[in-house]
Amino acid sequence: MKPTDINDPEYFHKVVDCQYACPAHTPVPEYIRLIAQGKYTEAYMINWESNVFPGVLGRTCDRPCEPACRRVRVEEEPVAICRLKRVAADNKSNVKPFMPQGPFPSNSKKIALIGGGPASLTVARDLAPLGYEIHLYDEWESGGGMMRTQIPSFRLPLEVLNEEVNYILDMGIHTHFNHYVDSMAQILSKDYDAIFVGTGAPRGRQLDLPGYKEAQQHVQIGIEFLANVAFEHTEEIGKKVIVLGGGNTAMDCCRTSKRLGADHVYVVVRSPKADMKASPWEIDDAEREGINILNNLPPKAYVMENGKFIGMHFEHVQAVYDDNGKRKLIPTGEEDLFIEATDVILAIGQDNAFPWIERDLGLEFGKWNLPVLDRNTFQSTLPKVFFGGDAAFGPENVITAVAHGHQAAISIDLFCKGESLAKRPAPMTNLISQKMGIHEWTYDNHIADDLRYLVPHEDNEKALKDRKVEVELGFGKETGFKEAMRCLNCDVQTVFATNLCIECDACVDVCPTDCITFTENGEELELRERLNAPALNKSQDLYVSDILPTARVMVKDEDVCLHCGLCAERCPTAAWDMKKYLYNVTKSYEQDGAGVTI
Amino acid sequence: MSYIKPQFHHPELKKNKVGYYKTDYEGVISTLCAGCGHDSISSAIVHACYEISLEPHRLAKLSGIGCSSKTPAYFLSNSHGFNSVHGRMPSVATGAGLANRDLIYMGISGDGDTASIGMGQFVHAVRRNINMVYIVMNNGCYGLTKGQDSATADFGSISKSGSENPYTAIDLVGLALELNAGFVGRSFSGDKSQLVPMIKAALSHPGFAFIDVISPCVTFNNNQGSTKSYSYVRDHIEATSVLDFVPFEEEIKVDYEDGTSAELELFNGSKIVLSKISSHWDPRNKILAKKYLNESKENGQILTGLFYIDTETESFHKKLNTVTTPLNKLSKNDLCPGSSKLTDINKTFM
Fold first, then answer.
1. Chunked mean pLDDT (size 10), chain B, 350 residues
2. Per-residue model confidence as pLDDT tens digits over A318-358
3. How far apart are CA B328 and CA A213, in angstroms?
4. Does B234 touch chain A (CB under 8 A)?
5. What residue of A is the nearest CA neighbor of B9?
6. Hey, are the CB atoms on A505 and B43 less than 8 Å from each other?
């Protein structure tokens, strides 16, 4: 193998698994350390800079970081990264002074943002400090998009959402609420220099089964139901509710129904439980509230009796997987199941819909009626129009929308300056030794054995009475500290200097997870087999040194390195050093002209 | 500075035949200097015991005083241990061995502990063929008292302070051969591929097994001009052969070329395979071993490997005709068989 190029900014970035997995690449270990130090405001600002909505995401994020956490590979449960973010948000002091302060000198460019969700708000935040005049359009009476309409208050209190939406709107954003944009041509005819579309995936799927016509008034679309509840247009529901679908929207719908007065709530899912799209913790929370989740039951018909809707029929199926893992639902032949109901809520998926964009503007649409976009720049075929969030590539999540927003903002800024959109700014990186003295580090390198701490919940009785009572109470400061100590500090990198090594084997002997081997060089696959502990996880890199005096190389398997620093402590010549790697995705307002061309 | 080892180990780590992980053979975190050769020897002992599936409670670690003698704290935390007086480890080993012949004894000593203050004890342990493994962590200096030349420092070797050693060195390997030790080897802390099988073989040897391990003192004897520094040893090391230890009932997996390998069976059925040896080398021939050793010394080489093994050695238990049961397991009836037995004995004098 060739010696590893640690100057490639992505090499050490990949070692920080959580940050690498995060669509916005938030520097997770950095803020977790600050939480452990009680520096909640600083921890919040690191988040805010990167993911814009720490309080919202600390409660509702899909957490792509957690399955990636190294702790999963050496212990079992990941660090509760998401809930630690909330600890920072809950305990911060006044953060406003640390944010860009308006009014910003104008650059006489005007931008329209269609839709007021996380993608648009991110674009607004990233562009406002540069002097853009930003106009934000949204059909609802306030901003936040799906964070407001689709996430119930018992998961995300309004105050938290309002606070973080307002940090952005207060930067001098011109808001046009209660304004449904029904024509792209009209927006194009105004003098905007660029337009960003962040309208989400607003169309919930219908389910036209036998009996639908008659039962129609008892059938609601999940996301519309949630929006109506959020804006207090819907305040009650029947006593017996069937929710169809196995995603997070289904979980929100069933739990909301329970709070609006339903006694019996069934979530009925076509597929087996293991295949459900909902996050496991959302399923747990629903079940904890006494909601029945029934699996392997595709709906068959809406049932009427004497002109009255009485429930639904479901077919029993069994999931069969072929050799490629493709699933087929095979009827078992059992008698259909009838579930009594007064209401049905459909949460079986969302689609993109752009009925308001005329098809003769030169803005092309492709597969699934999605706009044709450049994957990196988010530019559409109409150069001044950009897309982001669910509107770009279909339904994802808040953190992905934020990541899109950052990149779209960079594109819009380059576009308005007349520069090439392909010239993306390089990430800001920094690699600093953590050495304080002999065997002393600036980070806490002790590896905590603690198992993942559980977030306390509000009593069911109290929580189910009022839909605005937040269910999760969050970690207190003390538990937050203990959970933060579980972090392995993967951003503190083991950096090897070939020229200093005397090959004494001290690092090999002390490494608790047998990551380090001195051996003859070879091809990667073959080398992986003959290390001190075979490096079977190929998604993790091998760190290979230059040739040493004994003609061998140092090979370190990054997979289960604990970043405990013992290799560096036992190294007599400081050939190993522990260096903190900071990787920050450059935002539009942080550009200094340096960039990488894609 | 870290004082506690992380509890996590590599998820692919396998249990050995007796159900232990390699980590079960480790000790507390070392307080020796970073980069000390002794730590590598500790690690080699851990590997050897794990690989031959030794149950930790069957082994007793014995040591004297010095950096080397601290190391039993850093391996086999689940084994027995006795940290004795400077240079007196062989006496303790003799006593322990006589009292309980069921345990495996591993003596850890240094060049000071063996070649200076403990010399009088060492030679008698060899002569009596005490059933033990005797490892000398040999760094040629007194590391614990800031690196003065020890009795094994080579003539002319330059110390860290710049002075040349005016005395000739005691060659512990030569001495052990002279005193009829049944297992004599030398290795280097930086070469685990040689050291680990050698320790495994030594643990299976039924008498006194001596291993001299050159172990650079990274703080006081790793300077230019020292003959026991990492770089000097690497430049001058010469292995007699490649050593492989094959435990009883396991198959020899590697095919060795004819005429370049030798197979030695130990009393417990395990085998030592020596490969890449020159055709006229036989580790059962002591005269040859001495000859090679002297020649290499003349050539300025550091010869390593298994020099001599007596596969038919007579242990001191046999010499002394000791009772086969450990003393602590002898019952009152065994120890005091009663007056009729006494009468029987007395009759033999009449």
1. 87 93 94 95 97 96 97 97 97 96 96 96 96 97 94 95 95 96 95 94 94 96 95 90 79 63 78 73 87 90 92 88 92 91 92
2. 999 988 888 889 999 999 999 999 999 999 998 888 999 99
3. 91
4. yes
5. A513
6. yes
* Residues of chain A numbered 486-525 and touching chain B (CB < 8 Å): 502-506, 508-510, 512-515
Predicted model pTM: 0.89
Instruction: Give the per-residue pLDDT at B263.
Output: 79
CATH 3.50.50.60, applies to A204-348? yes
Q: CB distance B1–A505 less than 8 Å?
A: no
Please, are residues A88 and A40 in contact by the beta-carbon 8 Å criterion?
yes
CB-CB under 8 Å, B12 with A504: no
Q: How many angstroms separate the CA atoms of B293 and B304, rounded? A: 9
Give the distance, in angstroms, between the CA of residue B57 and the centroid of all CA atoms in the same chain: 19
Percent helix, percent strand, percent coil in chain B, to nearest 5: 35, 20, 45
Q: Which residues of A touch B40 (CB under 8 A)?
A: 504-506, 509
Q: Which residue type is seen at B213?
A: V
Using the beta-carbon criterion (under 8 Å), do B2 and A565 form an inter-chain contact?
Answer: yes
CB contact under 8 A, B1 and A506: no
Which DSSP letter does residue B102 get?
T
Phi-psi region of A322 (alpha: psi -120 to 50; beta: other; left: phi over 0): beta
Six-digit token pair at A254?
Answer: 């069933």
Least confident of A165-174, A588-597, B112-121, B183-192: A588-597
DSSP state of A367: G
Would you kindly state where each structural domain of chain B is located, as residue ranges?
22-320
- CB-CB neighbors (< 8 A) of A505 in chain B: 39-40, 43, 189-190, 192
CATH superfamily to which A9-97+446-484 belongs: Alpha-helical ferredoxin (1.10.1060.10)
Give me the mean pLDDT over the A191-218 stretch.
93
Query: Reduced to 3 states, what is the DSSP secondary structure of residue A327?
Result: strand
Closest Cβ–Cβ partner in A75, A446, A506 for B39: A506
CB B308 within 8 A of CB B175: no
d(CA A53, CA B46): 51
Sign of CA dihedral A361, A366, A369, A372: negative
Interface of B with A in 24-43 (CB under 8 A): 29-30, 33-37, 39-40, 42-43
Domain with CATH 3.50.50.60 in chain A: 110-202+352-421, 204-348
**Stretch A386-397: mean pLDDT:** 94
Q: Which of A302, A305, A308 is nearest to A344 (CA)?
A: A302
Residue with tokens 């639908």: A212
Q: Could you say which architecture CATH assigns to the domain A110-202+352-421?
A: 3-Layer(bba) Sandwich (3.50)
pLDDT at position A593 is 46
Q: Which of these CATH numbers, 3.30.70.20, 3.50.30.30, 3.30.1330.80, 3.30.1490.20, describes A492-588? A: 3.30.70.20
For position B331, what pLDDT does the model report?
Answer: 92
Least CB-CB distance to B190: which of A439, A504, A573?
Answer: A504
Residue A365: pLDDT over 80: yes
pLDDT at position A594: 45
| A365 bridge partner residues | A371
Number of CB pairs, chain A paired with chain B, less than 8 A apart: 100
Summarize pLDDT for A21-53 with one digit per residue, the tens: 999 999 999 999 999 999 999 999 999 999 999
The pLDDT, as a whole number, for residue B256 is 61
- Confidence band for A595, pLDDT divided at 50, 70 and 90: very low
**Residue A584 structure tokens:** 């920050």
Closest CA to A55 of A22, A88, A93, A21: A88
Topology at the third CATH level for domain B22-320? Rossmann fold (3.40.50)
Longest dimension (CA), chain A: 90
